[in-house]
Structure formats: structure tokens, C-alpha cells
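Q: My labmate handed me this sequence with no annotations at all. I'd like to see what the chain might look like in three dimensions before we decide whether it's worth expressing. Could you predict it?
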Amino acid sequence: MDVVTKLTDAYWLSARDPEYGPERTGPVSNNEVAYFRCAFALSEPAALLLSVSAHSRYRLWVNGEAVLSGPCKGDRWRHYYETVDVSRYLTVGDNVIAVKVVAYGPYESQPPGWGGPFSVTANAAGPCLIASGKCLAVDGRVLADVATGKPGDGWLVCNDEAVGWEAYGPTHFMGAMERVDGTKLPRDWNRAVRPGGDWRAPHRRWQADGRPYGIIPPFPLSERPIPLLYEIERSFVRDIVSARSDAEPISFGPDGRAAQPAEIPPRSRRAVILDAGELTTGYMRVDVEGGRGSRVRILYAESFSSRREDGFPVKGKRDDAERFDLIGQEDVYLPSGGRDTYEPFWFRTFRFVRIEVETGEEPLLLHPPLYRETGYPLEATSAADSSASWIKPLWEVSLRTLQRCMHETYEDCPYYEQLQYAMDTRLQILFTYSASADTRLALRAIDDYAASLLPEGILQARFPCEESQVIPTFSLHWILMIDDYYWQTGDTGVIRRYRSTIDAVLDWFDRKIGPSGLVERLGYWEFIDWVEEWEALNGAPTATLSGPSAIHNLVYAYTLRTAAGLSRLAAREETACEYEKRAADILAAVHAHCWSEAEGLYREGPGLAQFSQHAQVWAVLAGLAEGEQGRLLMERMLERDDLLRCSYAMSYYLFRALEKCGLYHETERLWEPWKELLTLNLTTWPEDPFMQRSDCHGWGALPLYEFTRCLLGVHADLPGWKAIRIAPNCLSLDDMEGQAATPSGTVRVGWSREASGLAVFGESPEGIPLRVVLPDGSTHSFPDGGRFNLLSEARN
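A: Here is what I predict for the chain of 796 residues:
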């Protein structure tokens, strides 16, 4: 390989014995855990930039301090490594670098849910580690070299016998939960110079860089493309006493951090329910003393709930401990009898945690539990507020929802799957642009989906993922991501980089055109939206049972027109014209076969007497119904209460269609579902309005976009925000104030209704041309940006 990494002087180390190693064939059917450590002495203060990776995942400590988890999720062709400055953890004297490595069994080798998270690539190599770095004195002298695989490198390994695994069906995408026997753990392995356990030299395997004859190595290393996740220690905000619990309660009071440990007598069963105050993601930490022979069960839940016969939860107010129970996944820890700290290897998602202790013959001391919150380090500098009481709560819940769905990738839901789905991700990227100027995770997502291309020319619906899945229209949303990225950054390089993949996807759809001139029989999972009437088809339109779906064709036509614009930016005029011709043909066929003159609406499919908001929305967005025709179509749609309705997944597109037709004021009534959810004491938005499996799903964070782009009215007037336009939509609000992050700088906007009209004021980045379009239709130009203070006669 031509790639040179920061690990070039290192070798991969294997935790398996040599006789078990390279000659062994056949699949690994279980997860494996190993502990690697390197002890060294420093005679003076030193600096260390450490590069590290592992298979499948690792958690790194330096002198007992948790540093980070990794590697960043990759795929067969990209195995990432991290480089981190660990100088602040070093000390003069003895030092220990310690790495816990979990190798998940290959997906095919065991039932779903018994291995690792679906989003983590695994193979049969078992636990492997690679690291490199030199401890440097102030004058540049090398005091210690911690690269793996060098003679006398000091690295040792101990194979684990303490950790077992058990699947939890509802969250099987997340892999198995832990069952840990503390009596079998190597004592003080991550901090002591002479720890407990059976330590030996690991087996040296592959060199980091360089393979002859173009051979791709088992782990093709690439540097992590995104920032490290943050970790912040948090305490729980309160205990909850549930009358439905049959265990005697423990309480740490309202301030758990200041509480005293709880002593649990022998042969007893006690439990505590802890509330984090909001749904979060983090590493739970439980400290215990004594209690050999005890069992500690740690259950994680998004809310209090009960269970339907089909397995889906029934929920009311999310903190209602009187009517509902805590149901969820759990880890189990068996104390050693000494002073133990248990922290699960993978972060957990929870608002509520139930810790149940069942003691044996010895008492156990349970210290107030803590957790280390983790997530992508999003710097959300946008904000929105109003005297209307619903604006700020919707903004805060939306921002939290987005943040909880951002880790090493975007995620559909942090509790159930932690998988990056293309349609969901496109919306989350737009919401990220609304909250922050950060584009790094967005670009990473674009790269991920391009890497998922299948030989037939379609992308996988979720990636990275051990289990391949195709939802055809999700590939179209990936193309829309590229257009969004161009408008956010002005970068045409990404368009040129992926033009062949765009062509492949659109040609795949072109091959699906049937006798009617419409794409049909797409196969795989023809999902569009979680609509109750489509529940039996798992969100696929009824039309797909008999032939073409109007919605599929309209999304395809919309994407063709978008791709035509991208092709022109890549200097491919002929391709642009071809895509425009294809789009026009599809739109003509949709109108010919799906338009109902009697209803004044588009059917779900040819000859099908079913109508949805979705078809009308996409007819407007795709340009089939434009101008006055589009406005009348949207008005007819809103007048009808018998149409299949857009859920959270499609609300963004519903809002865009109304905006395009000059009917944005009609969106005010559409906020009612979000407002109603607040009464249920939710702290993040659920997945859909009727099943509500997950309490946190990124596509619900729509207020982040609408409040900045539409109510405050901050838009890019040129790609890359080289010019800015402010055009507020006031609805029936009396006032609005906030700011929007852009790559060109922060835009501040406020407006309020005065006796003389609508006052619009604010400030935009200096040197960036600005246009302010007032509700009365007047336009005011500020060639160099800066402050503005205007009055609109209209009072919409």
C-alpha cells in the first residue's frame, strides 16, 4: 500500500498464542477480550503523542485514567486509528499504558445480538492491538519508545476469563450485554506496575504499512477523519421511588455526588432508580466494596413503560413510575469482594438506570453511581428564543436529540441501533448545519455511503454495518447530501469525487423503468415513511404491491434534477441534459398515470384509490406542480383530513413544499405534535408518532432548521455562504430573536411586532454581502454585511 501512517514503525500484536494464530482456520463464534499493557519508567517529564488502533474496539487508559475509546468505526477497506496527546497523564517514575481490547465475533458466526454492534466491522482475527509513540524530553531526547512489535517493546497481554455476553432481543443491533465476574478480573491491570493476572508476550503479526504486490492487509489503516468524542463526568439528578418495585429501596438523595455510600446487608435485595434528568449517552460507573458472592444488575431505560404483545413499548409520561415499569437492557457484575469499579466497555443510552443488588453472605457498600457522558463534540452556537412559550423548549429538546444521535457516525437512535441510515442522516446533516458550522461528520457520512456501493450500482441503506441492507430511495437521499454539502461549503471537489457513484445510483433506477415509463418493482425494502396505514408493509407505500409508486418516482425525478445541477458544477453539461430529460419523462408519466382529476390530487399509484400528503409534497418539490398549481395542490392537501399523513421522517419535506408555494404560514399548525410531546416529559424526540419505539431519533430535530432558516430566515444566498439572505417568516408570533452559525461567521437576527410594523434588526459578518427580504416584499442590500435595523409595513 502507498499509505504511510503514524504507525509505520509498529506491528500488530495478537492476544492469541502462536499455536492458535495464523495457521488456525474457521470462524470465531464468540466475542473475545484481552488486556494489553506497557510499563515504562521516565526519569524526567516527557511528552507523548500516542497513535493506536485495535480489532475490534479498544478502551485506553494511561496510569489508570480513562483517555478514549476507539477505533473510529470503519469498514473492510478503512480501519481507523487515533492519535492523541497523553502527555498530561504521564508522571516521572513508573507509567502504564493499558488497553482493553474486545474482538467481536464475525457477524456470520453467531446469532444476531450475541456478537458486537452491527455498526462495528469484525473478522476472525481475534483481539489485536497496534500502537506507536515516543516519550520525548523537553530537548527532544527519546526517553521511551512504546511502539508495538519491536524487540523488547515491553508490551504484555492477558486473556480475559471474566467477561461473558448475553443478547437482549429488542436492542440486538447493539450487540450483547455484559456479564462480568469481578473475581476473575486481573487486579489493578490498568495502573499497577505489577498487576494481577497471567501476563505474557503477545504474538507479533502484520506490519502497519507496506504490503508487497498490492496486497490489501487485514486492517487497512487510515487516520481518524473526525474529532475525538468528548467524555464528561456526570452525576444523577435524583432517585425515584417506585411502588411497583419488589426490592427494598436505596436512596442517594437529590445530590448523588455528595451522598454517602449505601450499605446493603447480607442476604438482602435492594434497588435504586436513578434519573439523569434527560436522555443521555455515557459510560456507567459503579463503585462497590466488599460483597463477595453478590450480584449487581444495572438496567438502562429511555423511559418508564410497559410492553405490548408485539414487543413494542407502551409509554405515557416518560417519568411515570406509578403506572409503568423500567424495561430495558442490562449489564450484570459480580463483585470480587474488594474495592471494585465496574464500567461497561460500550457506552449505554439511558435516562433512567435501575441498580439492583442481591447480596450473599457478605455486606456490600454501594457508592453513589456516576457516568461519563460521551458524544460528538458539536459546538452548537446557533440559538432561537421568543416570548412564545413553545419556541425555546422545542429548540432545546431538538438540539439534545441531535447531539444524542451523533457519535462516531450519525445514528438513527442511540438506544436501539446506533446505525447510520442515509435518509435520516441527510436530515441530521441539515440540522447540524443549522446548529453549527461543523461539516466534518457530514463529510464522513458522504464518504461512508460511497464506500457502501454494491456491484449492481445501489448504495446500502445503513453504513458502516455488518449486515447489508438496501432501501432504494435512501441512495437518492445520499445524492441530496452532496448538494447540501456544496451549498454549505462551496466545495465542488466532493461533487467531482463522487460523480461516478451518482451516475451508478441513477442508472440503477433507470434500469427499473417499467412499461408505464415509471420506476417500479424496486425490490429490497421500499420504505418511505412510518405511516400507520402502511404498518403491515413496514413503511412501504401500498402502491408497491401492484406496481409503480408515485412517491418513489417523484423522489427519483427530484434527485435527477438535483444531479443535473451537480453535473454542471462538474463541467458535465451533456450528463446534466440527460438527467433533466429523464426527470421530465418521469414527471410526465406520473401525471399521466397518477393524477386524479376528480380529487385534484396525485394517487399513490396508477389506478390506486389511495392518497397521501407525501405524493403531493414530492409533486411540488420535483416541479410537477409549480406556481399557482402547486399552491392550490398544497391547499387542497391541507383541507383534507383523510390523506395519509407525513410523520416526523417526512415533515422536513412537507415544510419545504409549503415554503416553496408561499404557504409557510400554514406550518404553524404542524407544530402541534411537537408541543404535545412536551406534555409527556420527553427530553428528546421519539422515532415516530404512533409506535414510539425509540425516545430519541435525529429526524425529529426539525425545529433546528425551521427556527434558524425560516423563522429567523437565515439562508445562504451563494454556495459556501459567500453571500447571505435574511427573510424571516413570522407566523403569528409576536417576536423572535437568535443567531445562526455559518461558515462565514455568526448571523444575529431579531424581529418584533411594533405599532408601526415589524421591526427587523441584527448583524451579519463583515465583508459578506447581505440581502434582507422583509415580509412586505421589500429588499434591502448591504454589500459589506454588518448591522441592520429595518421596519416592514406588513404584519404577517
